[in-house]
Amino acid sequence: MGSLYRSEEMTLCQLFLQSEAAYACVSELGELGLVQFRDLNPDVSAFQRKFVNEVRRCDEMERKLRFLEKELEKDNIPQLDTGDLPEAPAPREMIDLEATFEKLENEMKEVNSNAEALKRNYLELTELKHILRKTQGFFEEAHATIDPYQAMTDPNMAEETVGLLGEEVRAPTTGQQPLRLGFVAGVIVRERMPAFERMLWRACRGNVFLKQANMDVPLEDPVTGDQVHKSVFIIFFQGDQLKTRVKKICEGFRATLYPCPETPAERREMAIGVMTRIEDLNTVLQQTRDHRHRVLVAAAKNMRSWLIKVRKIKAIYMTLNLFNLDVTQKCLIAECWCPVADLDRIQLGLRRGTEASGSSVPSILNRMATRESPPTYNRTNKFTSGFQSIVDAYGVAVYREVNPAPFTIITFPFLFAVMFGDFGHGLIMLCFAIWMILRERQLIAKKAHEDEMFGMFFSGRYMIMLMGIFSMYTGFVYNDFFSKSVNVFGSGWTVNDFTNSTGTRALDPNTTEWSGSPYWYGMDPVWQMSLNKISFLNTFKMKTSVILGIIHMFSGVILSLSNHRYFGNTLNIFCEFIPQVLFLSAIFLYLVCIIMAKWIYITPADSACAPSLLIGLINMVMFKYQKLDKNKTLCAVVPWYPGQQGLESFLVILAGLCIPWHLCLKPILLYMKHKGKFDVSKFLVLISYFPTFQIRIYPLSSQIKGH
């Protein structure tokens, strides 16, 4: 399987790049994606490196682009995406990009500030229009319902009436001075109105009269753009002291006060002027929106390519900050890990970068010898990337170790299907995965894979396809079609009356209802209607799970042998692999053999006295073996084949010896080697004569170094 079975062979290389060609060369290497650079300035702060100013300029350009993206989202303008990935622009193009972004940002800020000012004016005029309309209704209602002379002679209505009329009222037969009330009108958020009214009553001791009405249409906040419900109010009072107090309360509740004329003619004239100004503002606001829309539409055509270009420029300069300068300050020195198989492609990329920069001095790539452990690089494609991500989530393999990903391609979907196991639901999963695979290019073009939820499914589309296929297989074995059983091949049971007083009954294979021949493939559908279906199915699935789990464990141990042989770790084979295999075989492989024997040799007639696997395994470890008594009450623990007691005792003792062998022998040998009391090399040479260990013997120092 090539590099899929083991990680790529890596080498440490040293690069010598001319200063004028470094940008183009790093850009070409970034497009290849085959190089991992090392930081040659670990002690230098990020703010003290050579290209920190260029990185800051890129951060500033990203900030401006994010500002433009937010503006596009506010107006619901989609960004044009052609699917092309532009290359990193030349360094001199940064100035043009900065100028373009600066112009767009300033223009958008100016448009936004103008639009905000216009909206604020429009809001004030709209509120004033509602105030004039509502207060006119207040005054007309007062004139129509109250007699001025009656209000003047009635002390309970004097203040309210005279204030509402807004006129001087004098008693016809007396020489009293005219009683006149002042008033203020304004607008307040509807939610604050109850608290506002209580505060006025308490602060003014009930010497004011408040009249309020809700606006029918919500108003738009010029800053946030939210719809706000407001109420119009008018407050009547007497005296300058109350007037000052009322205005302070209005200011505290963020109420907006507007001038309101006293006479109907003046109010009518002001209302006409307000409506004229509102119409003019609507025209100007519409022109502002059109201009803003044109600017954003023009920016949306290039937004994706601008983002990619800026991010590539920033990545290049951040990579250049990892390089070191030579003594002449004209050459950049870098160290990087790269796959050995791709050295020619890397050389070609350096050559293209040098030619693009116009440099006459070629870039130099030298391989370096090192004792450092290289990074692990597993080459993937769109099919294997999902499985490799699952493996890497649990832990990245050591350099050149066996990669579990190709085995996970089969084991992960199959073990999922063992738990899922439904033909109908598996078919739905398969259809969904096939739909994503067939529409792969369209979904990528629509950026559907960038969605957090759907992107997770899209990246694992091939995994979902295999999970659906295996779920259909196991569902066919379990005879589950949307949780219903189907009689496809004819049941092996002949049950005429399946109901009694309890509704269902247990199936017994010792009766004549069973024909003696099992269902041709999978589970017999008759078990879904039996009383003992849960115990039967759970027993079957539990034994199957044990077998699959033990096979999985053995597979992992065998893969470790491949690693030991590849790295020449003979000591690990003798001190780790052999005791692990013996321990697994003595306990778990023996359990698998018992399960298979019980399935094959135990007949329905013997099922009542069949050996219990759980009790048998416990008795095996406890060296407990009971005899069959006269009443046959202990049949479950009776040895059921000759020599069982001796074989099980030997296996338990062997498993017990493997524990100290596995845990203690290797540390003891290495400790004795360190103290000079034992020559481990001779021991390794001795055991290498066995057929299993016919591998190359590395120096012991390299083996100790790995541990």
- How can the largest sheet be summarized? 5 strands, antiparallel
- What's the overall average pLDDT, rounded? 83
Cα-atom radius of gyration = 43 Å
| Number of beta-strand segments | 11
Structural class label: alpha+beta
Number of helices: 22
Could you say which overall geometry the principal axes of the C-alpha atoms support? extended
The stretches of 5 or more residues where confidence is low (pLDDT under 50) are 146-153, 155-175, 499-503, 692-707
Beta-strand content bin: 5-15%
Give the fraction of residues assigned to helices. Answer: 55-70%
What are its keywords?
5-stranded antiparallel beta sheet; 4-stranded antiparallel beta sheet; alpha+beta; Alpha-Beta Plaits; 707 residues
Characterization of this structure:
The protein is 56% helix and 8% strand. By secondary structure, it is of the alpha+beta class. A hairpin with a 5-residue loop joins strand 9 (324-325) and strand 10. Helix 6 runs antiparallel to helix 7 (240-252). The longest helix has 53 residues, at 93-145. The protein is extended and about 120 Å long. It starts with 9 loop residues before the first strand and ends with a helix. Residues 51-128 form a coiled coil.
Give a summary of the structure in a few sentences.
The chain is of the alpha+beta class.
Write the layout of secondary structure elements.
Blueprint: E1 10-18, H1 19-32, E2 36-37, H2 52-74, H3 93-145, H4 148-153, H5 158-165, E3 182-189, H6 193-203, E4 209-214, E5 219-220, E6 227-228, E7 230-237, H7 240-252, E8 256-258, H8 264-300, H9 303-320, E9 324-325, E10 331-339, H10 343-357, E11 364-368, H11 385-394, H12 405-420, H13 423-438, H14 440-445, H15 452-459, H16 461-478, H17 533-567, H18 570-601, H19 613-622, H20 644-675, H21 680-687, H22 700-705
Antiparallel strand pairs: 1-10, 1-11, 2-10, 3-7, 3-8, 4-7, 5-6, 9-10
